[in-house]
Design a protein that fits this description.
Layout (H helix, E strand, L loop, with lengths): L1 H10 L7 H55 L4 H26 L1 H11 L4 H26 L1 H7 L4 H10 L4 H18 L5 H24 L5 H24 L4 H8 L5
Protein name: MATE efflux family protein 8
GO molecular function, one term: antiporter activity
Keywords: Membrane, Transmembrane, Transmembrane helix
Length: about 260
């Protein structure tokens, strides 16, 4: 008899909770879980916007370089504007888009290395990508040097093709800087370093107005000056990234990640 009493006492809960209290407790618990999930969602959204916002700004600023150049070319007549527009489209499709896509591979490679804390691999991927993109830029430069003939073969207007054939070769130096710049961008953004990129791109875009004005209106180069301005501005952007590397102390550790274990 005593054993049955002991078993029943062990089977019964120590604290008796009514059905109403139990349901209210369940509701409170579910509401607290929902609140915590909402907080996690908002925190994650803030992190995403904190990273995505500057990256969107950087891409817009870099795209503005081509637009600003075309604005200055527009002062030299319809033919010059048509040729420069055709050249810009041809350069984007045959060169810049290709290099941009190839540099995007670093989003995966550097992201995996950084997440696995294998920081020495960041430098290997980075330098390897730079080397490959510079090599790819060489045949692209040959294509750009013959833009006029390519456009004529594709059935474009002869005058516009000639104007584009003059404009595009002046942007060949931009090819090599463009690939290196985007490799550096990927290298930094995978480490959550994005605001220095906004600073470099913003300064470059502002200086591009000055460079375009000097080369288009003051140097006697005419609309070709806008193409040279593109090349100069991309190299200015690359130079600014190097200056910021040397200036900001918290980026010095990234120099070690860039050069230690690399192919150089």
């Amino acid at each position: 008899m005593d054993k049955q009493v002991e078993k029943s006492s062990l089977a019964s809960p120590l604290i008796q909770i009514s059905e109403e209290e139990g349901s209210s407790f369940g509701r409170e618990r579910s509401s607290s879980v929902n609140v915590s999930r909402k907080n996690e969602f908002y925190e994650e959204m803030k992190k995403q916007l904190w990273l995505a916002g500057p990256l969107i700004t950087v891409n817009i600023l870099l795209y503005c370089l081509q637009v600003i150049s075309l604005m200055f070319v527009g002062h030299h007549g319809k033919l010059a504007l048509s040729g420069a527009s055709m050249a810009t489209s041809f350069a984007s499709v045959s060169g810049f888009s290709l290099l941009y896509g190839m540099a995007s591979a670093l989003d995966t490679l550097c992201g995996q290395s950084y997440g696995a804390k294998k920081y020495h691999l960041l430098g290997i991927h980075m330098q390897g990508a730079m080397f490959v993109l510079v090599l790819v830029s060489i045949p692209l430069a040959i294509i750009w040097a013959n833009t006029g003939a390519v456009l004529l073969a594709l059935g474009q207007d002869a005058d516009i093709s000639e104007a584009a054939g003059i404009y595009t070769p002046c942007m060949i130096p931009a090819l090599f800087a463009y690939g290196i710049v985007h490799c550096l961008f990927r290298f930094l953004q995978t480490q959550n370093i994005v605001f220095p990129l906004v600073l470099c791109s913003g300064i470059t875009t502002l200086l591009h107005f000055v460079v375009c004005w000097i080369l288009v209106f003051k140097s006697g180069l005419g609309y070709r000056g806008a193409a040279f301005a593109n090349s100069i501005s991309y190299w200015i952007n690359l130079l600014l990234i190097g200056i910021i590397y040397e200036t900001l102390p918290f980026l010095h550790k990234n120099l070690d990640r860039l050069f230690k274990g690399g192919v150089a």
